[in-house]
Amino acid sequence: MLWGPRYRSGMGTRAWVVVAVLALASSASADPKGDITSKTKEAMENYDLMDYDAAKKSLNQALATAKKAKLDKDPVTARVYLNLGLAAFAGGDVEGAKVAFVSAVQIDPKIQIEPAYKSPELTKLLDEARAGGKAAVATDPGPVGGDPIADVIDCASVKGFQHTIIDTAPGAAPQPIEALVGADITPVKVSAFYRVEGATDFTEVKLSKQGDCKYTGALPATAMKGSLIHYYVAALDGNSKAIAAKGSAGSPNILEITAPVKKVVATKDDVEDPINGKVTRSTEPTGGEISGGVIAGGKRPKIMVTLAGGTGFGYVSGNTEGGNMVQECCVGNSYVVLIPELGYQVNDKLSVGIAGRIGLPLGANVNAEGSEGHSSIAPGVLFRVRYALSPTGEGIRVMGQVGGGVMRNTIKLTTTTPGMDTDIVGQGPLLVGGGIGFLKKLSGKVSFVADLSALAGIAVVDKISGVNVNTGIGADLSLGLAIGF
Known about the structure:
Blueprint: H1 3-29, H2 32-48, H3 52-68, H4 75-90, H5 94-107, H6 120-130, E1 161-162, E2 168-170, E3 175-181, E4 189-195, E5 203-206, E6 208-210, E7 214-219, E8 228-236, E9 242-246, E10 253-258, E11 265-267, E12 280-282, E13 303-315, E14 331-345, E15 350-360, E16 378-388, E17 395-405, E18 407-412, E19 422-427, E20 430-441, E21 446-458, E22 463-464, E23 467-468, E24 472-484
Parallel strand pairs: 2-10
Antiparallel strand pairs: 1-3, 3-7, 4-5, 4-8, 6-7, 8-9, 8-10, 11-12, 13-14, 13-24, 14-15, 15-16, 16-17, 17-20, 18-19, 20-21, 21-24, 22-23
């Protein structure tokens, strides 16, 4: 029994060591400034590579980290806003750059553009933001509104465009949006624009005018999900161009979504609302939870150019191009297949495109009938429609395709003639089929793609250019990269 206390003492020591190690690990990982600096460095590396969408994505992630860590007014966040302005300007979003610069100087009025990125245009833009935003698109003189019934707004005193940025809001419930527009601005309409988690485009919500200068509306409850939502509010002219705004598509405001609100059930047994009657509010949870993720600014590319290559095989029958009958097992190989494609993104999930299928028959040593050689290429053109299962467009995609051309596979013949045992079987010229694919975005404009394509070659004619064609089916497995424009 003498070993008992020593054993317990040893166990206690080890427990304290474990606790200390875990505490140190937790402390090391809880370094939001380090995370922000790392994301900023990553963003500017992408900026140097002229991948401005990827740069904005990393910077928006850095802003989200700053917001969660309560570092909104820290100089490190001012630098993030400044770099976001650089990326927005380089991407052609001048208004977004103005908004980002104003946010930067509001935190650090003395902030400067690093010499490597400085230009006369950017310096002028920053000076204007520092001077009070004379040319900036957004102003924020102070909080707007509170209780819409109790507030009495003196519209004669309202100047410019006013909206208080919403930092946090509960999920699964409509989020009210309010803006004040002074008489010095004459918009055709005032709208809020939001982008839900997983989306790339903004959705517009038109605000209704209340009185002489107040505009109100709400982000829908269906949008208030996930962990973050990007939004901005703008006064628009007749061409739907922002003449004043708080935020922009390139530099949106980040609204952090908290736990879902509880349902409010109204009855007539309470005394909370002296205007509309008595209201009793009972609550019940709506479910849901917070998940991570930040979607960067910028628009989704509409045009996609894909370069892919792979291999294939086919079920063949009939006569070969050399005039031989396909005898034993009917599986031939298409060793090399190249597939360039030009696509148009209709929306996040649907795309259409024109693809070329270029097969390269290899290994044949039997000449085609009436020819001194065998076919060296199998060309085809296909019209493709793709549909992604995910709302982001990434992940699994299904495909339908139709077109014309020839598929060619090489097969072994049953023959004893040396050097004359491999022939080509052609299929087509009507090509119909489908497939399944996978897409993964590598940056704002570049994606990895993989496709498993199945095609039926239907012999609506017996020969093409004097060469036999048959009916059969084939399959291609290809990998490649898609570049957006």
